């Protein structure tokens, strides 16, 4: 990786008309949120935009200003509406150029049709990547040996990924070893959960006071209802370095709200 800046924050841009018109359910932003939490990255923004050059440019620029690590999902296939590569290139004054290593890898995993001109051109669209001699402006990473799909990187922080969830997830996992050396050493967070039957309105004052007490420790308090079982979960999130303090807070919350500390797995079971 050519970039050297430390990663504290992240943003995600979901690109595609199909998401906005309800044809496709977006699961990538949720996966990315969990991914960031696990790595101790503060996810500060998620945006969904159509297959529109101006919308993509605006969203990516805005997210790059807000975050150290930006991921886009979608719009890099072979059809006319797959415009993510050229749009992001344009946003940063770059051209797109046929990336021969991507073509070579594509040939290893898929049959390239040299006889059908239209089909060949469509396939090559997926290898037209943002280009610059300066790696800090445009780079290309192959992070999973089982895939030919590259991760194009623009401005050292924008990582362009496909929208297909299986590919999106595999490439994100492949990026872990790339971005880990750039993560802040104190960034990893822990989430404590307390399940209670106390109504949110009844515990609102208590949680407001608690948040005020712990704000200097960068601890965040939240509550989430489970309508079907008439219970609520209180979430306490903070730095792993404050684990003993977080445990104490969770126990205090459980005692005050006559609740119980539960695991993330239990919370997911309740949520479903």
List the SSEs and their pairings.
Elements: E1 9-15, H1 17-20, H2 28-39, E2 42-49, H3 53-66, E3 69-73, H4 84-91, E4 95-98, H5 100-109, H6 117-125, E5 128-131, E6 138-141, E7 151-154, E8 158-161, H7 165-179, E9 189-196, H8 200-214, E10 220-226, E11 231-239, H9 243-256, E12 260-262, H10 264-271
Account of the 3D structure:
The protein has 272 residues and is of the alpha/beta class. The chain has 2 domains: 9-182, 3-Layer(aba) Sandwich (Molybdenum Cofactor Biosythetic Enzyme, Chain A), CATH 3.40.980; 189-271, Alpha-Beta Plaits, CATH 3.30.70. It has 10 helices and 12 strands. The strands form 3 sheets. Strands 2-1-3-8-7-6 form a 6-stranded mixed sheet, sandwiched between helices. The protein has a 4-stranded antiparallel sheet with strand order 10-11-9-12, sandwiched between helices. A hairpin with a 4-residue loop joins strand 10 and strand 11 (231-239). The longest helix has 15 residues, at 165-179. It is elongated and about 70 Å long. The relative contact order is 0.13. It holds the Pfam family FLAD1_M. One of its GO terms (molecular function) is FAD diphosphatase activity.
């Amino acid at each position: 990786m050519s970039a050297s800046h430390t990663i504290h924050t992240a943003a995600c841009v979901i690109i595609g008309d199909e998401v906005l018109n309800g044809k496709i359910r977006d699961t990538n932003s949720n996966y990315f949120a969990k991914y960031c939490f696990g790595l101790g990255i503060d996810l500060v923004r998620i945006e969904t935009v159509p297959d529109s050059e101006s919308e993509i440019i605006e969203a990516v620029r805005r997210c790059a200003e807000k975050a150290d690590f930006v991921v886009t999902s979608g719009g890099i296939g072979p059809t006319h509406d797959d415009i993510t590569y050229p749009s992001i290139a344009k946003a940063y004054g770059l051209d797109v150029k046929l990336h021969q290593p991507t073509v070579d890898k594509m040939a290893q995993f898929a049959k390239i049709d040299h006889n059908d001109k239209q089909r060949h051109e469509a396939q090559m669209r997926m290898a037209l990547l943002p280009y610059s001699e300066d790696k800090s402006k445009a780079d290309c990473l192959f992070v999973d040996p089982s895939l030919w799909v590259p991760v194009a990187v623009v401005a050292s922080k924008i990582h362009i990924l496909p929208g297909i969830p299986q590919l999106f997830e595999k490439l994100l996992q492949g990026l872990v070893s790339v971005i880990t050396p750039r993560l802040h050493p104190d960034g990893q967070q822990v989430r404590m959960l307390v399940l209670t039957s106390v109504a949110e309105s009844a515990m609102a004052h208590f949680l407001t006071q608690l948040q005020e007490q712990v704000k200097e420790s960068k601890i965040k308090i939240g509550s989430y209802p489970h309508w079907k079982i008439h219970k609520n979960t209180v979430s306490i999130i903070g730095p792993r370095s404050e684990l003993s303090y977080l445990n104490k807070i969770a126990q205090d919350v459980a005692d005050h709200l006559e609740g119980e500390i539960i695991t993330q797995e239990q919370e997911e079971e309740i949520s479903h």
